[in-house]
């Protein structure tokens, strides 16, 4: 078994364990990122877009992580914290597997190239910092382009919210507002014009809904800010990268979440630049950092678990290979002797 396959499988295993341990934080963070809130201050009466946005998403204080978790449990039950877990596990296994597989391939090629170009003046021919960053960026880009559709589906499922019907008061009459991350105040706002669906969308229905809305290209929504994040992640440490790239993560989540199908154009995003422009105009810079504290905790814990599990799995796999090699050698020699 090649090192690329071993590292890919180990990365997938470590990623699955990390997701299982931190998924509630990830789900809450996605909701925080996609929650729109008008920035504070008086809106000029002649700004039609700003007025429409402020009406749909009134200014309010952002909930903390524990408050948000309690809100999800209260409205959606414990299952709300784990909505989209299955596709997230599949996505994480694929993402980590693809990333570490391609990273090992590109890394091995870079090391081979460095050895071939080794100079007799004392240079050891090892892979430099820039080459290492480039290798990580290439592996990250391959991962993003291959697995982005899975994460669009996960984001859609994580941002589904329940809404009580106007004439119902029982739990059986609960309907769902698949609102692309609208805040709870917008969901219960009588001025909100979105029409709720009748049941929680599963992965298959989410795929159908997304394809109907945007075709095949819809599965690659948010790919541009994600690719930019990959390059920045390769240049700084994990904690610093979370802070530096977080605004792009928010933009990505906004683009991947289901858009408000009705209302003013200010409530919809046409693309990356349009999302950034409207967020700055209607929500201010604070809109780019919603839920960052949740993300920092989730990222650090997930990264620690991922690397710990991955390295242990790599060691186990290599030990198994070493143990089996003598048996394979003896078997081969016995066949030759016979």
Automatic annotation (TrEMBL):
It is found in: Membrane. Pfam families: Mito_carr. The chain crosses the membrane at residues 6-25, 125-146. The keyword Membrane applies. Solcar repeats lie at residues 2-109, 225-316. Keywords: Membrane, Repeat, Transmembrane, Transmembrane helix, Transport. SUPFAM superfamilies: Mitochondrial carrier. It is a multi-pass membrane protein. GO terms for cellular component: membrane. GO terms for biological process: nucleotide transport; transmembrane transport. Belongs to the mitochondrial carrier (TC 2.A.29) family. This is Peroxisomal nicotinamide adenine dinucleotide carrier. The lineage of its organism: Eukaryota, Viridiplantae, Streptophyta, Embryophyta, Bryophyta.
